[in-house]
Specification:
The complex is a heterotrimer of chains A (126), B (217) and C (386). Chain A is mainly α. Chain A contains five helices and no strands. Chain A has one domain: 3 helical TM bundles of succinate and fumarate reductases. Chain A has helices at 3-10, 18-45, 51-61, 64-91, 99-125. Chain A is globular, with a radius of gyration of 18 Å. Chain B has 217 residues and is an alpha+beta fold. In chain B, strands 2-1-5-3-4 form a five-stranded mixed sheet. A two-stranded antiparallel ribbon of chain B has the order 6-7. In chain B, helix 5 (153-166) packs across helix 7 (198-210). Chain C is of the alpha+beta class. Helices cover 26% and strands 28% of the residues of chain C. The chains are: A mainly alpha (126), B alpha+beta (217), C alpha+beta (386). The interface between B and C is large, with 51 and 48 residues.
């Protein structure tokens, strides 16, 4: 299967069901979080270069732009986790015939935790 | 009603597809397949499309109509058209032979030799499985679209039925292209024109395999 | 003289062409099948899928017996293709009831095993039947998915070396010295036109047989006869529902997979392409279908479609009476010695039609290999795709 063809099929949204789009978002969130993990390990290692460089990075991350990124990352984490839990349940063959209700519940969890998390981030860090 | 039928055309040797526009008069109650057939007979005999039974029982006319996988013969023009526009494209997940016809051998070649076609419905009564083998589930499936060795939703769903009736499934079902390659997108079950629920059956087959209730041949 | 060196081109990818390609390739001929559309795009793909017991045609004992024997043969060579649940002929009106004795007598004469059942028993077997039914007879009908049957014949033909080319339309014939030398073909997949030479040509295009033959300046006395079918969303029974009476409009409901199909009507047209569906026929099907099974009037119509039977016209007196239900047209009377056309028949007699055509081709080419399609199991349809 051509790589180009495969990647292009990921971005096919028109006509896909809510189920398919949830799957796509879960995948995308996972990829972004994995990339973030790598970036995080890189930024922590700046400590090796000296305290000032690390502090400069921390200042950047607590800036308003940094907080927005934090909120986005939090939402992606919650989405990946909640949809991942949905996937873990149905992929083991449980509640398969109630999957629509389970998916709705998973998204409700995403909405709730995203809201709470965003509020906390802004309140504590802002 | 006035309909603008846009058909994705592709012939062997073309480097990219072409979208042909046909402005036609259509009855909202007629099927998209009827419309395509009429256009092919009156306007362009080189239009290649697959069809046979015209009543949703054989699976030949699966295609993408305005972005959604459907069986063209049971999709009404009035219901499918968006502001009089009908865009028809071939199914994803398969090689295109030409225009709207695709090569379904990636699906059929995975059928094990002992494939059952009939299921019992009562004492001495039988029925062909509801699955019409249209390939819509392959087009909808994100795994089938990216992983050529995936056995696919319908083949795995039929394997589930075999597991229930015979207690055994072929080795490929438990292998890398089998039930474990599915990632619970469930678009197959959403798009299946006969409600065969392949996604659910794949997960249920997993439980049978995990619980040791089915042998792998 | 072995068949292997002879190339036969079969035109038409419906059940007749597919079965003929199988019969000929099994005898050792090199076969190429050409179909202008997809496999089963014509009449036989659209049949409502009745594996005839023959009882519908009991008035003509020979035709009925032929149907029944082929029904048995198909069940034997490809049991996996058929829902073998039998059928019921039900009498709804007094007129229907009056037909019963004649019906039972003729079934007996044709050698078709039927069994009268009490209305109450019939209703227990099939709860969706009209509760007011007056009589019921159990017959050995069956149902099938037409495309898969055609593909099974083709998979079997391919096993013996046949080459199958859908989307390849015959657009002309090269006739020289009383023989067809080649057909001119348009490959719609590549938009390339090419010539295909062969030793013999079989025109198995059914309702289109005259349209195709006229490209060679020949004539086939076929009368395309469309009929409307109405497919309902839902399976309302397991056995075929037939109206106990002379064959008429809307007298059958066939269940296959999750669909029930009411059929059919009939009229004659000149051109089997572009037949439009008269709305009154649809209403008639639903009305007549409800007489057999009242639930019909409450069901959603999934699809309405039409396909043209290849009826044999009066002029088909060729002296080649292979059967009363189908005819092989010998074009040597028009000056072309290596082409035969075949028309008429029912889906269920396709294998027999192919056998007779195979015999005719063999006779013409001086080959003597018998048909073996009745003995060997058919290959499963999914092998067509490998």
């Amino acid at each position: 299967m051509g790589l180009g063809k495969a990647v292009r099929s990921w971005f096919q949204v028109k006509g896909r069901s809510a189920e398919h789009i949830s799957f796509g978002l879960r995948r995308l969130a996972g990829i972004v979080l994995a990339l973030y993990l790598v970036i995080h390990m890189v930024d922590i290692s700046t400590l090796l270069l000296g305290r000032e460089y690390y502090q400069a990075l921390l200042n950047l991350f607590s800036s308003p732009v940094g907080l927005v990124f934090d909120i986005i990352l939090w939402i992606l984490l919650v989405a990946h986790g909640s949809l991942g839990l949905y996937s873990a349940i149905v992929e083991a063959g449980f509640l398969v015939d109630r999957r629509k209700e389970l998916l709705v519940a998973a998204w409700a969890v995403v909405a709730l935790f995203s809201l709470v998390g965003a509020v906390v981030i802004i309140h504590v860090m802002g | 009603m006035k309909v603008r039928l846009i058909v994705r055309r592709w012939k062997q040797g073309w480097t990219r597809p072409r979208y042909d526009v046909f402005d036609v008069e259509a009855d909202p109650e007629e099927s998209v397949l009827d419309l395509i057939e009429r256009v092919s007979l009156s306007t362009d005999r080189t239009l290649v499309f697959e069809h046979a039974c015209h009543h949703g029982a054989c699976g030949a006319c699966g295609m993408i109509i305005n972005g959604v996988e459907r069986l063209a013969c049971v999709t009404k023009v009035g219901e499918a058209a968006r502001k009089g526009l009908l865009l028809v494209e071939p199914l994803r997940g398969f090689e295109v032979i030409s225009d709207l016809a695709v090569d379904k051998s990636r699906m059929f070649s995975k059928y094990p030799a002992e494939t059952q076609t009939l299921e019992p419905v009562a004492a001495s009564l039988e029925k062909l499985y509801d699955c019409v083998e249209c390939g819509v589930c392959y087009s909808a499936c994100p795994i089938a679209n990216t992983y050529g060795e995936y056995l696919g939703p319908s083949v795995l769903a039929l394997a589930y039925h075999r597991a229930l009736s015979d207690g055994v499934v072929p080795g490929s079902v438990a292998g890398s292209g089998g039930v474990w390659a599915c990632h619970a997108a469930f678009d197959c079950s959403e798009k299946c024109p006969v409600g065969f629920k392949p996604g659910e059956k794949i997960m249920k087959l997993r439980r049978l395999l995990l619980g040791g209730r089915v042998k792998v041949s | 003289m072995t068949a292997v060196s002879k190339h036969v081109v079969v035109i038409g990818g419906g059940v007749t062409g597919a079965a003929t390609a199988y019969d000929l390739s099994l005898r050792g001929f090199r076969v190429t099948l050409l179909e202008r559309g997809s496999i089963g795009a014509g009449t036989s793909g659209r049949t409502h899928g009745l594996l005839h017991s023959g009882c519908r045609y009991v008035a003509d004992t020979e035709v009925a017996r032929e149907c029944y024997l082929e029904n048995q043969t198909l069940r034997r060579i490809a049991p996996f293709l058929f829902e073998k649940n039998g059928g019921l002929f039900v009498a709804i009106t007094e007129d229907d009831l009056a037909y019963k004795d004649f019906f039972l007598k003729k079934c007996g004469e044709a050698g078709i095993p039927v069994e009268e059942v009490e209305p109450a028993v019939a209703l227990k077997m099939e709860p969706n039947l009209n509760p007011k039914l007056k009589a019921a007879v159990l017959v050995p009908d069956g149902t099938f998915d037409p495309l898969k049957v055609i593909l099974s014949f083709l998979a079997s033909a391919k096993k013996y070396g046949a080459v199958v080319k859908p989307y390849n339309e015959v657009v002309g014939f090269r006739v020289e010295g009383g023989e067809v030398r080649a057909v001119r073909v348009l490959d719609k997949v590549s938009l390339r036109e090419y010539e295909l030479e062969a030793d013999f040509f079989v025109n198995a295009t059914g309702a289109w047989a005259n349209k195709v033959a006229s490209l060679a300046g020949l004539h086939v006395p076929v009368k395309p006869s469309p009929g409307v079918m109405v497919a309902l969303d839902g399976r309302i029974g397991n056995r075929v529902f037939n109206r106990l009476n002379k064959p008429g409009d809307g007298d059958i409901i066939i269940h296959q997979r999750g669909t029930s199909v009411i059929g059919t009507t009939s009229w004659i047209v000149e051109d089997p392409d572009g037949v439009s569906i008269p709305k009154e026929h649809v209403e008639l099907m639903i009305k007549r279908g409800s007489e057999i099974a009242p639930v019909v009037s409450r069901m959603r119509v999934k699809a309405v479609y039409v396909s043209s039977r290849p009826l044999v016209g009066q002029a088909a007196q060729t002296g080649r009476e292979v059967s009363r239900s189908f005819a092989i047209i010998d074009h040597s009377r028009e000056g072309v010695g290596n082409m035969l056309s075949i028309i008429g028949g029912k889906f269920v007699t396709a294998r027999l039609m192919a056998e007779k055509m195979g015999d005719a081709v063999c006779e013409r080419l001086g080959v003597s290999v018998p048909s073996r399609t009745a003995e060997l199991p058919l290959a499963p349809y999914w092998l067509y795709f490998s």
